[in-house]
Amino acid sequence: MARSLDRKRCIIVTVVTVVLLIIVLGLVLGLTLRRDPEQFETTFIDRCETFEGYDCKKLWTTFEQAYVGRDPCKVTPEDYDPFIAAASFKPACDRMMFWSKTKDVVHAFTEKNPCFVTLEDTVLGGVVDGLTWCGKEGSSETFTIGCPGWTDCENNTVRSFWNRASVAFADAACGDVTAMLNGALDTPFSSASIFGSIELPRFTSPKVKRLHILLVSQTNSGANCTNASLQEIQKTLSAGITYSCKDMTEAQLQQCSHKPCGNCW
Ligand code: N1C
Fold first, then answer.
1. Pocket residues for ligand 1 (CB within 6 Å)?
2. Which of 91, 180, 183, 199 is close enough to 99 for a disulfide, judged by CB 3.0 to 4.6 Å?
């Protein structure tokens, strides 16, 4: 008798636990997968408002018209032209920072040393940095899930954006330009990267005077400035621009964070 009661109790406890688990799982999934069409716009506008002098509502409208209601694989870089025009920024000569495969290190650096400016530190890149977005034919919404990935199709909404924004950022480059590359890689420079294929070829003399490459690694053991891939940079670089390269550890870079806007390399 007591044993059958125990069994009953055991079954009830198990059933209740399973039901509770299903409810919790459902809630978590429901919350994370909830489509919130306004969320992306809110993030965009909130970020935009941290920059001075922009009409953020207007910026949003010019941005979304590039992809809303369209096939997310048929958005070209040129579709972002109106947004690029509306998000124009004052170029910071001698302070512009480009990068490839060093996203976290470079942003940690420019955050501590605002002397240097990456594309994501301007309104142009800042409003959507790290985000995914796309439209759908027959819809007026912005979607953040189910969008094509970076390599799924050439003219995907996100990739076309970074291609176009990088053109604008590189076209604004002037004076001394710096680019941070990853010394932990066998080939720190790739001509297929956005930096190699879009930005570097757009630096022109005499507007750009010098290109400083910072090859950053955790220890001194990775690739160094003699790396063969870096010679390609010199070949691509327009005549008249002086090239230099410096090996740096992340610790040395940290030291530069405390230096006033000036020469650390
Ligand atoms: O292909 P990459 O690097 O060489 O592109 C980096 C280069 C930088 O100098 C930026 O000016 O191109 C610009 N750029 C961005 O600003 C940017 N922000 C976020 C390019 N890509 C950017 N992203 C995302 O990082 C983008 O969605 C893509 O997936 C990566 C490219 O980084 P990479 O290959 O390290």
1. 98-101, 103, 119-120, 125, 129, 150, 158, 162, 166, 169, 193-195, 199
2. 180
Residue 36 has pLDDT above 90, yes or no: no
Identify the three-state secondary structure at position 177.
Answer: strand
- Does residue 20 form part of some domain? no
What is the CATH classification number for the domain harbouring 106?
A: 1.20.82.10
Q: Is 242 within the bounds of a domain?
A: yes
Give the total number of structural domains in the chain. Answer: 1
Ligand 1: distance of its center to the CA of 194 in Å?
Answer: 6
List, for residues 137-189, the tens digit of each pLDDT value. 999 999 999 999 999 999 999 999 999 999 999 999 999 999 999 999 999 99
State the amino acid at position 221 in one-letter form: S
Nearest to 86 by CA among 110, 66, 106, 114: 66
User: Is the model's pLDDT at 91 over the cut of 70?
Assistant: yes
Give the residue, by CA position, lying nearest to ligand 1 atom 35. Answer: 101
Distance of alpha carbon 13 from alpha carbon 168, whole angstroms? 63
Q: Which domain holds residue 246?
A: 37-257
